[in-house]
Amino acid sequence: MTSALVSVLLTAYNREEYVAASIESVLAQSCGDFELIVTDDRSSDGTLSIAREYERKDPRVRVHANERNLGDYGNRNYAASLARGEFLKFHDSDDIMYPHCLEVMVRYLSATPSAAFALSAHRAWGGAPCPIISTPHLSYQREFLGFGMFNALVMSYSRLPLAMAQDGMLPKVFGKLHPRSRAPWVTILVCATGWAMCLGLGFERLIIIDILLYGASLSLEFVALIVLRIREPELPRPFRVPGGMFGAVAVGIAPMLLLGFSVLRSQSEQVLGISAFAFGMLLIAAGAVAYFLNVTLKPSGWSTAPDKPEPVA
């Protein structure tokens, strides 16, 4: 049995409409040193017979029909157990592989022994491969600080100022909604601006500050939970933490330990010439000051009083 440089693992289940084109895209690779392993997971259509046709035509193709349905990941693991190549490339039976795919991946994996794996994605690169050797720091910058941050955090956190404005805790301008999408466009712009100002702080500083701020707010929730458990033990609530007082205290232990670790770790990180811990505490203090100013200036809230109904005859 001869080994190949790359083992392409094509797992299939009821893909007769796509499997032929998928196999042909593998056979058209500019890197010819590969084996194509097709594992059919008990398909009830013509997937297996189509794959057998390619096996008869090309010695690089090996087809295995599973004795029972293994499911998606079980089938992937079984295909990997059959591989003889130095590199493994999973390939779904309804996907198309660019002709340069294996060549580019093998070249850069071989030149970068520290790389554990390679990923590919569809991008409008103008037809040319653009490999990127991604370090953990670069991955964080591209994915977390890129669309991931703005989509996940800005869009979710923008609901908080909206709710506060609707409850009269912020000026009503934060409650403005887009006429078509009903999105809180003012709060989205404000949150996006705030996040953009933080992008240059770096990964570790942002994580520490995030844990400090979120941990402080979470600790207030745990304190409120314990206080309510003492003062209002029979207070109706949709969800009750089991275990009585011990359960109420126990759920806060792990987050408080994480907060303590963040406090210790933050001493070595600097933000604007001060420790990340001091910077985080300043942000927390600024929030408390803003709250008291808000209460002092607008003790009844920012909401305007509703108009009194006119008497009718």
Describe the structure.
By secondary structure, the chain is α/β, with parallel strands linked by helices. The chain folds into 2 domains: 6-111, Alpha-Beta Complex (Spore Coat Polysaccharide Biosynthesis Protein SpsA, Chain A), CATH 3.90.550; 139-297, no CATH class. Helix content is 50%, strand content 9%. The protein is built from 11 helices and 6 strands. The strands form 2 sheets. The protein has a 4-stranded parallel β-sheet with strand order 3-2-1-4, sandwiched between helices. A two-stranded antiparallel sheet has the order 5-6. The longest helix is centred in the C-terminal third of the chain and has 29 residues, at 203-231. The chain starts with 5 loop residues before the first strand and ends in a 16-residue tail after the last helix. Residues 305-313 have low confidence and may be disordered.
Would you summarize the structure shown here?
By secondary structure, the protein is an alpha/beta fold. It has eleven helices and six strands.
Strand content: 5-15%
Overall geometric form: elongated
Strand order of the largest sheet: 3-2-1-4
Helix-strand pattern: EHEHEHEHHHHHHHEEH
Mean pLDDT: 78
Domain count, please report it: 2
N- to C-terminal separation? 99 Å
Output the structural class. Answer: alpha/beta
Q: Count every helix, treating DSSP H or I runs of 4 or more residues as helices.
A: 11
| Cα-based radius of gyration, to the nearest Å | 29 Å
Low-confidence segments, ≥5 residues, pLDDT <50? 305-313
Tell me about the largest β-sheet: 4 strands, parallel
Helix content: 40-55%
Tally the beta strands: 6
